[in-house]
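call fold target=Succinate dehydrogenase hydrophobic membrane anchor subunit
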Amino acid sequence: MSTVAAPRSPIAAPRRKGPNLEKWGWIYMRASGVLLVVLIFGHLFINLMTGEGIHQIDFAFVAGKFATPFWQWWDVIMLWLALIHGANGMRTVVNDYVTHNGARRVLVWALWLAAAFLILLGTLVVFTFDPCIGVTQDSSLWEMCQSVAG
Ligand code: HEM
């Protein structure tokens, strides 16, 4: 019967020089986890427990939040922390379960590429969001957008 080696047993190959990225990854998961509890539950509380709760969530509600630097930064920090946390967590799962080295490397690369793409896209959306793009006269936003533009 094979057993898992004790966590601190010496490994066959000596560790390469330079920063211990696995250690920093481990610390990142804990530190981002603590911050994510505050950010995610703050997000859920404000969106669902205040005002009219879930009934208030529509385009105007989101546009209002994205017009405020405080919520822009809240959402962007949550996006970055959660995507890096999720990708790094999935990297751990892939490293644990994918035994073929080539497949493992492809999957880990795909994880970071997907995370980087979503971080870029999400950050652009939050900071460049403009509710008046494409608004025509028959839209309920028309007057508000006219006064902002004028
Ligand atoms: C309430 C906020 C969160 C907290 C406190 C939290 C905490 C943690 C911690 C401490 C770990 C490391 C576990 C270990 O090494 O054994 C972890 C792993 C992980 N987290 Fe989170 N996390 C949170 C939110 C998220 C979110 C939003 C995602 C997805 C985007 C996510 C995806 C993952 C994944 C995929 C792993 C790896 C699981 C594994 O190793 O088996 N977590 N989380």
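return ok
The CA atoms of residues 141 and 147 lie 10 Å apart. The mean pLDDT is 91.
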